[in-house]
Write a structure and sequence with these properties.
The complex is a heterodimer of chains A (153) and B (487). Chain A contains two helices and eight strands. Chain A is α+β, with helices and mostly antiparallel strands and 153 residues long. Chain A has one domain: Archease domain (Archease, Possible Chaperone, Chain: A, domain 1, 3-Layer(bab) Sandwich). In chain A, the strands form two sheets. In chain A, strands 1, 2, 6, 7 and 8 form a five-stranded antiparallel β-sheet that branches. In chain A, strands 3-5-4 form a three-stranded antiparallel β-sheet. In chain A, helix 1 packs parallel to helix 2. The longest helix of chain A is centred in the middle third of the chain and has 19 residues. The relative contact order of chain A is 0.24. Chain B has 487 residues and is an alpha+beta fold. Chain B is 32% helix and 25% strand. Chain B is built from 17 helices and 19 strands. In chain B, strand 15 and strand 16 form a beta hairpin. The chains are: A alpha+beta (153), B alpha+beta (487). Chains A and B meet through strand 1, strand 2, helix 2 and strand 6 of A and helix 8, helix 10 and helix 14 of B.
Amino acid sequence: MRHAPKLPPAGRTITRDVYETFEHTADLGLRAVAADLDSLFAEAARGLFSIIVENLDQVEPQCNVSFNIEGSDPAYLLFDWLNELLITFDTRHLLFAEFDVHVTDQGVQATASGEQLDTNRHHLDHEIKAITYHGLSVVRIDNGWQAEVIVDI
Amino acid sequence: MPGTKFQGKLEQIDACCWRIPRDYKPGMRVDGLIYADERLIDHIKADQAPEQVANVAFLPGIQGASLAMPDIHWGYGFCIGGVCATDPDEGGVISPGGVGYDINCGVRLMRTNLSEEEVRPRLKALVDQLYRDIPTGVGRSGKYHFSTDQLRELLRDGVGYLRSRNLATDDDLECTESNGCIEDAQPGYVSDRALQRGTSQCGTVGAGNHFLEVQVVDRVVDPAKAEVMGLQAGGVCVLIHSGSRGLGYQVCDDALRMLRDAPAEYGIDLPDRQLVCAPINSPQGQRYLGAMRAAANYAFCNRQLLMWQTREVFERIFARPWREMQMQLVYDIAHNIAKFEEHQVGEQRKIVCVHRKGATRAFPPGSADIPARYREIGQPVIIPGDMGRASWILAGAPGSMAKTFGTTCHGAGRAMSRTASIKEARGRRIDQELAAKGIIVRGRSWKGLAEEQPKAYKDVDIVVDVVHNAGLSTKVARLRPMGVIKG
């Protein structure tokens, strides 16, 4: 994928936060790696919108939307976070490219910045039907965190 | 193919069927059975789809076997192409994963009295007009908007509601599975968020593998059955593939969330989180069933409105009323759904809950639950293939009742992942390749077409051979595409 720098091999120090997509027969996998949970959730969100829109770099931070998600299991929190973003896109046609995320023991507080979908400027790519629980994981790796999730296309 | 190769036990029973024995994994309550032939089985073993067939065999109350059709491929939780029947009286469960996010994703075929020769000269204008008038792709709203109260009526009454709005005929209702309305739908169990997503998406195609195709009957295999369905060689048809759009996805998502703790509450041990379920006879199970039926009714209405808009486009392009062009619905059938049906299990007749996830009902001749006009020939089954080769019309056969809870395959099944398909298509123009074969395709992006290119799918002719030879459904006619619109 265009927005997917190579992930660091296992055992190597994470020098920057990254996301990439990986194969799943009829659907798509999304993997993010980051130094801490806050960055991991932001990176996964960028990954999500890179699947929805081809030219994510053309999405301007013109408006902010706040999210407040309760929970403590990191995998379910990631699921709920990505799901809220997806539903906001589906119902309000808002695309997001920047994310300020705080993950605590009680949940996620986040602000997503983006703008209204404009099909003249934004090249839509996939319709994501849903975030799935299949293969959903948020795990510690050397010096950081890794998240994996399969999205239904 | 992605994922690791399946290396578990797989025993050949006959030319069309393979077994994963119950002792493959502790926790399996029944065998797994995969309908496939020598040409397909290696492909099926290339990823973890057979493992998913084995996992479904863990579900409480499962009857007979955990079944998979020849178009099986790796899904999430359930494989795509999976069938699972559960008995409510034996603690049987309902699992939203056994239906899928796109509740009542399905297909409908409409015939016309137009011939390929009549349509070919206007084909480009026709496909362009379809693409302009019928919303496809991400973020497109339809021309039909429903208030929350209207939407609730639509969810309860299905296509009957559209008939009351003069957007469907009696014939349309009769030729839709369950007359376009699954009874006992509970719109009250559909969340506000799902309703919000459903307000303006009824009558839109969506994206992914959904499409609307102008097709021509390429070959009639069973002339008597084809005649009853109004199909003849050279005749033009329209095939529509879509589902319940955002409303259905939200109903599934709400249910999975509601059921997160249900397996622990009911002491159900599951090998995959995506298989979450609850007993049919539990408050959670009933809640999901009521909402799922409502979403299924939305999907019938979505395809009805897509067909209605198609009739309007044909009227505009061919300058005569659709009735004059005899644009009649042949049949509309779900391939992501759970329904209560009576089946023979061992020595007993039982009411079981049949989950069909990427699988199609295929009731044989004589079934009470199919329209009178098809009762002598069996229920029409519509199998979409890929946009370059073919689709098939089959008829339900007695073998389906004996072997697969009245079920057959639902499509060609993917042969390549989306990522692999894009890689394979690099440097090619799929639209031009199809144009060279006389097929006009309109889609939003190169990538979208690359992911859905013909090679990404198995050869539907082979898949259909298996279900025909296994006696699950019999071949009636082969259709080939002329024009395609995609999201």
